[in-house]
């Protein structure tokens, strides 16, 4: 079973590989800001992928536009509500400005 390791919280949670990181974290009581509830409109759920980017679905054009709007672009930044891990990943929850 794949795992999501949150390096800045020193916690690791299992995932079935079917749900976005955001909901796996919340289901496991890992706090992460998600103002829009996963509707890809707020951008507050952005995370830095430290390891395992190859185990995530690629970002959609809409996700890229949200990241551009919130000025959180970069090859390792993703919206936790939009990426589904199909293998082990390690992330860092990006603090809000
Ligand atoms: S929770 Fe709002 S964009 Fe992900």
Portion of residues in helices?
A: 10-25%
In CATH terms, what is the architecture? Roll
Which cofactor or ligand species appear? FE2/S2 (inorganic) cluster
Number of strands: 5
The percent range for strand residues is 15-25%
Give the overall shape, derived from the CA principal axes. globular
Structure, described:
The protein has 97 residues and is α+β, with helices and mostly antiparallel strands. The chain has one domain: Beta-grasp domain (Ubiquitin-like (UB roll), Roll), CATH 3.10.20.30. The chain has two helices and five strands. It has helices spanning 21-27, 61-69; strands spanning 3-6, 11-14, 46-51, 77-79, 89-93. It has a five-stranded mixed sheet with strand order 2-1-5-3-4. The radius of gyration is 12 Å and the shape is globular. The N and C termini lie far apart (34 Å). The model has no long low-confidence stretch (mean pLDDT 94). FE2/S2 (inorganic) cluster binds next to loops.
Topology:
Layout: E1 3-6, E2 11-14, H1 21-27, E3 46-51, H2 61-69, E4 77-79, E5 89-93
Parallel strand pairs: 1-5
Antiparallel strand pairs: 1-2, 3-4, 3-5
The structure holds FE2/S2 (inorganic) cluster.
